[in-house]
Amino acid sequence: MVEAQRSINEISEHARREIFLALASEAAACSICPAMCERMAVLSERNGQVGARVMFVGEAPGRQGGDRTRVPFSGDQSGQNFQKFLASINLSRSEIFITNAVLCNPRKASGANRRPTAVEVANCSDFLRRQIEVVSPRVVVTLGAVSLDALRRIQYHELTLKESAGKIYEWAGRLLVPVYHPSPQVLASHRRESEQLKDYQAIRRAPRRAEKKLLRDE
């Protein structure tokens, strides 16, 4: 994956954008997961800028969030919380790219959101790998355990959310910052708002550390 990072950085911004648009079209036509064939992948230019320094990876689009708005982490309470956390470190959506480990919304028979299965995460793994390659962020931020586990399928790591949240690690030639998911349920039962705000300070520091790492590597 490090070699892919080097090669993608050598092509023009226009070419990278064309690669991304082709990838988004491929994802839109995907029908691998039987339970999601009625829904479409949330992946387009509305996810953010190709070439963003920081890339966020969530779990899956929410029924009232990304699946409805076509923008990850928007339109629901998780999106509002995420926006608050971004603002706390003076980071705007225009500066980032945001996607999910699973690009389509997983639902129960009742219509409620559900956690994506391991098979669904595996089915979407190649789309995630290729997004990381074409966006080529210096920093990858995982939002929750599902996305942290999804990165393990791309390049192995031994990190766990409980032990690693709010810390900076090297991964696949980039920096990785695991944080908790910004859903109301997680805030109520696993990681309070005050703790998540502290975790985001690592995201604030990571781009500068990545620049120093890049200079050392050169």
The CATH class label is Alpha Beta
CATH superfamily annotation: Uracil-DNA glycosylase-like domain
Secondary-structure-based class equals: alpha/beta
What gyration radius follows from the Cα positions, in whole Å?
16 Å
How do the strands line up in the largest sheet? 2-1-3-5-4
Q: Tell me roughly what share of residues is in helical segments.
A: 40-55%
Reported by name, the CATH topology is Uracil-DNA Glycosylase, subunit E
User: Which sheet architecture does the biggest sheet show?
Assistant: 5 strands, mixed
The low-confidence runs, each spanning 5 or more residues with pLDDT under 50, are: none
* DSSP strand content: 5-15%
Number of strands: 5
- Give the count of helical stretches: 9
The global form is globular
Overall domain count: 1
The termini sit apart by 18 Å
The arrangement of helices and strands along the chain is HHEHHEHEHHEEHH
User: Which architecture does the CATH hierarchy give at level 2?
Assistant: 3-Layer(aba) Sandwich
Mean pLDDT, nearest integer?
94
Indicate the topology.
Blueprint: H1 2-9, H2 13-28, E1 54-58, H3 66-69, H4 77-88, E2 96-100, H5 118-135, E3 139-143, H6 145-154, H7 161-164, E4 169-171, E5 174-179, H8 184-189, H9 193-217
Parallel strand pairs: 1-2, 1-3, 3-5
Antiparallel strand pairs: 4-5
Question: Could you characterize the architecture of this molecule?
Answer:
The protein is α/β, with parallel strands linked by helices and 218 residues long. It has a single domain (2-217), classed as Uracil-DNA Glycosylase, subunit E, CATH 3.40.470.10. Helix content is 47%, strand content 11%. It is built from 9 helices and 5 strands; from the N terminus they run ααβααβαβααββαα. It has helices at residues 2-9, 13-28, 66-69, 77-88, 118-135, 145-154, 161-164, 184-189, 193-217, and strands at residues 54-58, 96-100, 139-143, 169-171, 174-179. Strands 2-1-3-5-4 form a 5-stranded mixed beta sheet, sandwiched between helices. The model has no long low-confidence stretch (mean pLDDT 94).
